[in-house]
Amino acid sequence: MATEDLRATVIEVIAEEIGVPIETLKDETTLESLVSDSLEFLGVMTALRAKFGDFPDAWVAHLNTISDVVGMVEVFVNGVVSGRTV
Hints:
Blueprint: H1 3-18, H2 31-34, H3 38-52, H4 57-60, H5 66-78, E1 80-81, E2 84-85
Helix pairs in contact: 1-3, 1-5
């Protein structure tokens, strides 16, 4: 999946899950500012896993921003980090 398509899909999933307009989500938006508790965060991660597959739990602990989430999903789906195959 192309990076821009993947980014748009990740943002769409997050916006739908937490009930905010897509246009309010920016790459630098923090997850802490979006989710009110761990159950809401879990709901976002569950929705992303349903869409993209079962990425490792250990990866989730290091997510702080929308950009981090997009990067994690990109690595999981495409096996790519900054243009390099992993």
